[in-house]
Amino acid sequence: MNIKNYINGEFIKPTSNEWIDNYNPSNGEVYGQIPNSSKADVENAYIAAKAAFPSWSQTTLEERSRILIKISELLEANLERFAEAESKDNGKPISLAKTVDIPRAASNFRFFGNAITQFASESHESAGENAINYTLRQPIGVVGCISPWNLPLYLFTWKIAPAIASGNCVVAKPSEVTPLTAYLLGEICDEAGLPKGVLNIVHGLGTTTGQAIVEHPDIKAISFTGGTATGAHIAKVAAPMFKKLSLELGGKNPNIIFADCDYDDMLNTTIRSSFANQGQICLCGSRIFVDSSIYEKFKADFVEKIKQLKVGHPSDSDTNIGALVSKPHLEKVKTYIEVAKEENGKILCGGNKVTVKNYENGYYLEPTVIEAPSDECRVNQEEIFGPVVTIMPFDNEDEVLQMANKVKYGLSATLWTNDLKRTMRMSNQLQAGIVWVNTWMMRDLRTPFGGVKASGVGREGGFEALRFFTEPKNICIKY
Ligand code: NDP
């Protein structure tokens, strides 16, 4: 299968005619090729976006909204096809793609299709001075959207939908590792009547295609989700051009469990927050801190439940843990299991590659729990981004708060307790952009989404995203 770039409403080959192999993580085989796009392809995408901008930015909100909602409906109508593609490309269980990834991609378009009709700007009356200020929220122009491989269509559309809803035209790049659903999205956009050039999708490597988007002097804003090191590099390249930047980066999120929580609910949710999507979600609670009074019980129950999880082929309906996204990523995650051993961490379960019958070359790994000797060891400080969590006991609130905050990241935190005052105290002091109490990954798309410290700058979601993709202009009139 040859994936093509989607530029100016057409599916086209890369100008260089160079291609990159695309692997199926479930069996390690090459099953297609994607364009190895160059600067010239990014330039062509930019030219198409620039040409589409005057008309798209003047399209009525009702019309933009109608098209976005149509895209959402078409994604829902094609749920099976998209879910199969996502699962094949990424290695995630088909059940997850069907219930989370693709429905959420459809929701992103529906949500921003509706949100743009409710977005408003401010007016300030300067009392006593016979003047009124009103603020316009104007689209920026051509913007760049760059997304990672873990939730491919989900995160790709989380950027594109608000960008086009607010009247911008887009040059977008999905991860080279998971390009398939982004490619299929082009067909849906055509069918929904999105004008040519409003969305342009360029496939290729981060270091060349992605870099060309970030370096382009006339792509005025970059919305990026990915690793912290890449985010720092992008900030360095974009800053001298004064580009607007939204950076959603890595995490090393604490999951803090107090003895007074609803135990069964906590246990079931902690299995999910540890291993959903093979642990490859930036929001996974990869550092589990447990009240020492229930530590031994939790440890035994947690490990017993994990041993029941089925690691298997992504298309099997009873698979809980599919394949990791790529061979290099599998190797990286395995390295951390070795690091844990060197650091005197105790592997409570997992730690080994899994061989799935008939798919022996797939990238499967057992869900792994490491009892960590200290909160400062590498496996408790560095983002592993796989089916690997650490657990540690704590004795009191101050101690766990200190450990929770003692990382460079600050994306999300989860707290399990029924003590209201403790909830308020801890939520105030946790260094994170998102705190979940007695739940995990419950999302209301209106809420601000993003992290602090090395987890990024800026917020996505709701009107925050529409603010990012528009430029405020204040007009002061004296009368
Ligand atoms: P990367 O940072 O490697 O890549 C993210 C995207 O950036 C990919 O499309 C990549 O292309 C591209 N890219 C790489 N180098 C450059 C460059 N120099 N210029 C422009 N674009 C570039 O992250 P991963 O794909 O490995 O994703 C995993 C990371 O993403 C984890 O750290 C995770 O925590 C984070 N993440 C954060 C989320 C959040 O909301 N905060 C959500 C999900 C993930 P290519 O793949 O082709 O190299």
Automatic annotation (TrEMBL):
The chain positions of domain Aldehyde dehydrogenase read: 12-475
Q: Does the keyword NAD apply?
A: yes
GO terms (molecular function) for this protein are: oxidoreductase activity, acting on the aldehyde or oxo group of donors, NAD or NADP as acceptor
Keyword Protease applies: no
Instruction: Kindly state which keywords UniProt assigns to this record, in alphabetical order.
Output: NAD, Oxidoreductase
One Pfam family in the UniProt entry:
Aldedh
Q: Which residues form a coiled coil?
A: none
Q: Which Gene3D superfamilies match?
A: Aldehyde Dehydrogenase, Chain A, domain 1, Aldehyde Dehydrogenase, Chain A, domain 2
Catalytic residues, per the record, are 248
Family matches, as PROSITE patterns: ALDEHYDE_DEHYDR_CYS (PS00070), ALDEHYDE_DEHYDR_GLU (PS00687)
PANTHER family named among the record's database cross-references: 2-AMINOMUCONIC SEMIALDEHYDE DEHYDROGENASE (PTHR43720)
Indicate the family of this protein. Belongs to the aldehyde dehydrogenase family.
Name of the protein described by the UniProt record: Aminomuconate-semialdehyde/2-hydroxymuconate-6-semialdehyde dehydrogenase
Q: What is the lineage of its organism?
A: Bacteria, Pseudomonadati, Bacteroidota, Flavobacteriia, Flavobacteriales
